[in-house]
Amino acid sequence: MGITSSKRGRSYQHHALLITAVLLSFFTLPLGCVSKPNQSLMTSVKAGNYADAREAIHDEYGNTRDKKDDRNYMLTRMREVMVDLADGKGAESEDSANEVYDILRTQGINRDKTISSVVINEDLKFWKGEPFEQAMTYAYVAVQKGQEGEWDNTRAAANQSLFMLKDFGQSRSGGRKSSVDIARESNRRDGERRDDYIDNGYVVAKTDFVYGHLLSGVASWVLGREDEARDQFNQALKINSKLKKLINTLESDQWNTLLVVDFGLGPQKVAYGPDKSMARFQPWRRFGPNARLQVTIDNQKLNFPIVCNLDQMASDHMWNNLEDVRVAKSAVGTGMMVAGGALLAQDDDTAKYIGLGLLVAGAVSKAGAHADTRYCEIMPQRVYLAPIKVTHPNTSVLLQVAGQSGSKLRLFGLNPPADHERAVLRYVRLNSDRRAPQWAKADQIVYSNDGSTDAIAGSELPFILGGHDVRKPSHEVLMEYQSAGHLNNLTLGDLEELYRAEGIAIDEQERIQYQQAGGDLSYQRHILEGGRSLVPPKAGSAAYSRVFAQKQAPYQPQSEIVRELRQQIRKEDKRKASNQEEQDG
Amino acid sequence: MTQKNRALLVWIALLVIAFYAMNCAPKTSTSRLTTDDLQAITTEMADSLRSSEFLQERDGRSPEMIITIQSVQNLSSDLIPTSEQWYLVERVVDSLPVRELANSKNIRFVRAADKVRQARENQNVRLDYAGDRTSTHILTATYTSVVRTTAGNRTDAYYCEYSIVDRASGEVDWVDKFEFKREAFGLSWD
What we know:
Strand content of chain A: 5-15%
Shape of chain B: elongated
Structural class of chain B: alpha/beta
Number of helices of chain B: 6
Largest sheet of chain B: 6 strands, mixed
Largest interface: A-B, 48 and 44 residues
Number of domains of chain B: 1
Shape of chain A: globular
CATH topology of the domain at 7-232 and 323-367 in chain A: Serine Threonine Protein Phosphatase 5, Tetratricopeptide repeat
Number of strands of chain B: 7
Strand order of the largest sheet of chain A: 9-10-4-13
Oligomer: heterodimer
Radius of gyration of chain A: 30 Å
Helix content of chain A: 40-55%
């Protein structure tokens, strides 16, 4: 009997050791998982170098990009949507935009992770963002759809951004309650172990997301649903009466092009408080809080107010999910240590083993505790809507946030809407470095391309052969080269073959094909910027100015056939020049 | 510690482990339109059109009818990508015996001008393709929805209406609708 009892005791000890080991492995896993913003991505976005920004995303998240169960899957896709839109790649960002929309519309993704996030760490959850980040993401999807002329989908996505919010009201000092105020109130009312106040102490409030109302109103207006548009505009006006003039314009026929303009970098998410268990957003850099967007078009100067200030949104408890209940988690860690201590005091060896395990696991849990500081680091600080009237092709527009010379940007290639369109939407992201790059201030584009009909010096030869033309090869383009005395022996097929020999994608179809075959990001970069794509950024985007309004380094041919042809052209040009000199002399 | 208490302790620990293990398989929920929904709608609408009086009353000697297919007008609260919008009307037509209808009912179906325009822009068709097409009727579909949300669930009631309208008179020659609900559980922000 004694022997049997002793064997059973050892068996329990083994079980206890096993359980202790498993518990430890659960609790030690999250240590060291504190996330940091991608600095390289932020630097590229501030300077308007979106091709570099895309590579920065790929460098950090490329391996997990397609893993839908990765905790940062949506964050990666969202960053892609924002960078692609800024880089003038509207249609190309469709897949990612649809993907993030689908995730946002999926409820309870983290339903089964609530306990582990409380006991272990908040950032074990699948990242879906704070409510303000979610509203902005819906708005980006709406903008992507609007840019492609899908106004019904713009309306749908914008309406999704207008979800109800939880309002815990004002603090005693009169301002909006902060997360800390709410946590304190919760502790005062419910103690540390219950969250009744957090769960039920709020009033369900209508959103104050003016930007979403305006996007929805614009989409309805374009769809000919004026009554619905008016409702949305009135809601926006109720929230912000300073938008009266902007809304009057939006309800009229005085515009045909809506510029959606982002500026600055949004607030940073930082951990604070005991155990760094709480998280809050703080401004990245302070800009003039009411600085208007100045727009110059056809010598006419206009200015527009801010429609969305993310610093303000992020600091309001209504726009945060209040899930940084690290205090609760910390309390659980403490509870485990207390229980472990009590078991250690027992005479029984098994109880001691389990007690030790709980004690260590509790300590580890407390030590590893931190708030989830993952956030979308390239959110803008503010958004402007600028409805303008574009009356002639190749219109250029100058933008600048008042008092922010670094934000100066000239857009090129804006065209009036086609006959079948009531309005068009263009997304623009302004630079937020202190000094504007030269290309942003340039007066004209220096490369002929498919987005413009402007006459450009050097457009009688393709860029790959030493010229300034980056248009897609076509009969018309080849005829222009030939009428200037070049490439007379070439057919259109021959010209296309030259690009293929260089591994350059001449249109979107080829670009996707090449990229999928090689997984090479250089097909996302224009040949003028050292990439392998001839597909131009959307005319009127910041990327269009960056790519075409600055002189780029000459092209370095890769293939023998292009190198030889370029030599021949040089010789021929020299011969023609000397003949001309002789004639002139 | 008694043997009973030890057993209890082991069981509690095992339950904790099982609880974490469940975290590996999150259950998700959405009230968006699914592929099955799209197929069910289009199948029912094709059946309805096939057996409609509008088609039954016609024969090979009836005046020529050219029906333009337009993409869905999405007035629902949910995003329907362009490709799906076209799928939702083209599948209805594809389900019909198009060649037989041309012979026995003197009906032809053509794509809407905006799709042709897009194809032209992509240089997928000759420039004069469908240049001066005139249609007598339009086949179109409108999707609307009503949303109800509470803290933990969301219901989208979708209403899809398909119709064929005489362009000259504005008369509706055929109309049918399809209604259904999709419900999702869980916190929308989570």
